[in-house]
Amino acid sequence: MTSGARLVVLGRQGAGKGTQCVRLSRHYVIPHIATGDMLRAAVRAGTELGRRAKQIMDDGDLVPDEVMVGIVDERLERGDTTHRGYILDGFPRTVAQAEALAAITEARPLDVVIDLDVPTEVVLARLASRRACVDCGTNYSTSSPPRYGWRCDNCGGEVVQRDDDKPEAIKHRLAAYEAKTAPLIEWYKDRDLLEVVDGQGDPDEVTQRVVVAIDARRLA
Ligand code: AMP
After folding, report:
1. C-beta separation of 76 from 104 below 8 A
2. What domain count does the chain have?
3. Which CATH number is 86's domain given?
């Protein structure tokens, strides 16, 4: 079996992070930790966190740093991540979160941060056609829907347009990305952890590019 890895994947909404992270999680046999999925699960379960996060998410804003850092800190303490590593999808999203993550992972630092690079005009088109399973988060699109009706191929859940993929929220989320998350690219470059990978084209080819970038780092 391939050795594990501690990974962060950055990229605009709609860059294909979710799809690629699922594949990387299988390839390296490490848990896929998607903070957006964790928050959506909390919303569905009606927990205190879910109630606080719902409106913020629907508006396309960011959940406060201290809340997110708490969630990720707790998750990274579980044995599955300390054993083989993990892939973080959707965290960090601000410099304050990156600083907190560096402190949390001081004993076992990140191996590499992938920036999945897809230009804004391309992600805008992808997001408008994106549909997702309300139960497991699997992504589809209007041009590649699930096999039977709008029911998830994975779990049978209903496949719908996410509230935060509606046009107003998309605009807001992309603006938040440029203002708050894009600075992380320089931040990780300065720490010599960044690999920029072209996220356009066939998803299998993108996965291959990412794996090559990660393995080159780990062997260096
Ligand atoms: P995603 O599925 O990654 O696009 O996340 C959906 C929404 O969850 C985001 O638009 C934010 O409102 C919230 N969210 C997820 N991860 C974070 C994070 N690291 N920091 C702040 N908010 C987050």
Report:
1. yes
2. 1
3. 3.40.50.300
